[in-house]
Design a protein that fits this description.
96 residues, mainly alpha, two-stranded parallel sheet, 4 helices, globular
Length: 96
């Protein structure tokens, strides 16, 4: 319940959310359940160290076109250099 309240509060402010906690506690399922409750498609993306910013650019373009939410699993695996560019991409989308 606390996760849902926090995420819906962030949505009200036109922001995103990043549930944190130990593995296997239902973070991904909670995001998927919230999306289902709000009739929003949710795309779960498993991140890896082989991810590059061009791949993410195409992914974000598809999300925007579909009007879908993204849930990034294992976000901590992304290289810091790529993560910096992804942060810029997300900021550009949020400011649009």
């Amino acid at each position: 319940d606390k996760c849902f309240m926090t995420l819906t509060g962030a949505l009200n402010l036109l922001l995103g959310g990043a549930p944190a906690g130990p593995a296997g506690t239902g973070k991904t399922e909670s995001v998927k359940d919230l999306g289902k409750a709000l009739a929003m498609p949710v795309v779960v993306f498993n991140c890896s160290d082989g991810l590059d910013y061009k791949m993410m650019e195409k992914f974000f373009s598809g999300l925007a076109q579909a009007g879908a939410w993204a849930c990034f699993d294992e976000f901590n695996r992304i290289d810091i250099e790529v993560l910096s560019v992804i942060a810029q991409q997300i900021m550009t989308i949020q400011n649009a």
